[in-house]
Amino acid sequence: MRDKPIITEIEGISKSFIEWLIIEGDDHLIAKKRTTPLQLYALESLISRMRQKHKKRSDIEGDLTKRKTGFKGELALDYELGKLQGNNYYIFQDLRLKSGHLYFQLDTLLLTKHFGLILEIKNIKGTLFFDNEFGQMIRTYEDKEEGFKDPLIQAGAQRSLLREFLKENKLETIPIEYFIVISHASTILKSSQGYHDVKERVFHADHLIQKIASLQKKYKNIQVKKSKLDEIKQKLLSSHSPLLSIPLEYYQITKEEILPGVHCPSCSHLGMERIYGKWSCPKCKFTSVTAHEQAIIDYLLLLNPTISNSQCRKFLGLKSRKSAHIILNRMNLEKTGTNKGTVYRLKEGEAHIMGNRHINRGSGT
Ligand SMILES: [Zn+2]
């Protein structure tokens, strides 16, 4: 029997980063701590429950890889920011805010009494060419060209929205800067002629602390009092609205296409059988008492934000109402309603119960 590791391992992210996050994340300077985005888990769940030959499978696998790479870059940036000295700033990791009717996402925001700083991290290898004329960033890697939106334009737009947000909420205005941080030291940066913003605002991660120091020189005067800065902090935290995961809608996949059942934690076979209070794999004979937990999480991430006893039985292939009751109550879920109206949902901020799914485990029929 395998125990679940406490720390979720994401492929390609060193465990020390994650441990660092957890230890340093308690530091009072980190006003809002980054957690693994629910979408990462939801995409993993989705892939594991699609038929092997589903026509959208490879696109979704590609999206997951991109998101993981992006997340890895964000963690690398958090690590760099950990080198900042002093305690005159707040760091917000992963904020999603609304201005007017538009939502906008900030990977990392740094606030001081002197200025605010939006940091966008790009975890991209190869050569990056910033094209002023077409508003594009072109990446060349292994003889292949790929176009992206110019992150400088995106960050500039985020700045406008953040300014708007402060105004709408009658908060103090503060100068806001933005940088694009490139996480790979080997990534080569190029730009079209006269695109001065690239020189000023795009650089490799190891220059970050020095760049922040230069902003500290630029904005010598205090722009907001500590009490006003704290007001901004509180408003940012209370306004954060995390993106709910709805991958089925996004990829236009129907609920009927999601395969039910319990995966074998050992060989990934979908279709474990319940025998005397244990799950048993007909393929590799592995047994588990907790294999259903991932299935219930998959259900909650993909099919419905709540699960009832009968939905649980149907999805897991369980006959006994009592077993389903025990299973659901043993998981760390939020419970509402009574008797047959009882439903269970994921607790907010409880993403870490997601377990230790390994991607590309080759499931489905
Ligand atoms: Zn198995």
Features of the shown structure:
365 residues, alpha/beta, Trna Endonuclease, Chain: A, domain 1, four-stranded mixed beta sheet, 11 helices, disordered N terminus, binds zinc ion
List the SSEs and their pairings.
Blueprint: H1 15-24, E1 30-32, H2 38-48, H3 57-81, E2 89-99, E3 102-112, E4 116-122, E5 127-131, E6 136-141, E7 144-149, H4 151-168, E8 176-182, E9 188-191, H5 196-201, E10 202-204, H6 208-218, H7 226-239, H8 247-251, E11 273-275, E12 278-280, E13 287-288, H9 292-302, E14 307-308, H10 309-316, H11 321-330, E15 333-336, E16 343-346
Parallel strand pairs: 1-2, 4-8, 5-9, 8-10
Antiparallel strand pairs: 2-3, 3-4, 5-6, 6-7, 11-12, 12-13, 14-16, 15-16
Walkthrough of the structure:
This protein has 365 residues and is of the alpha/beta class. It folds into two domains: 15-239, Trna Endonuclease, Chain: A, domain 1, CATH 3.40.1350.10; 259-354, Winged helix-like DNA-binding domain superfamily/Winged helix DNA-binding domain (Arc Repressor Mutant, subunit A, Orthogonal Bundle). It has helices spanning 15-24, 38-48, 57-81, 151-168, 196-201, 208-218, 226-239, 247-251, 292-302, 309-316, 321-330, and strands at 30-32, 89-99, 102-112, 116-122, 127-131, 136-141, 144-149, 176-182, 188-191, 202-204, 273-275, 278-280, 287-288, 307-308, 333-336, 343-346. The chain has a six-stranded mixed β-sheet with strand order 1-2-3-4-8-10, with helices on both faces. A four-stranded mixed β-sheet has the order 7-6-5-9. It has a three-stranded antiparallel β-sheet with strand order 11-12-13, with no helix packed on it. Strand 12 (278-280) and strand 13 form a beta hairpin. Helix 2 (38-48) runs antiparallel to helix 3, helix 2 (38-48) packs across helix 9 and helix 10 (309-316) packs across helix 11. The chain is globular and about 70 Å long. The structure holds zinc ion. Zinc ion (ZN) binds at residues 264, 266-267, 269, 281, 283-284, 286.
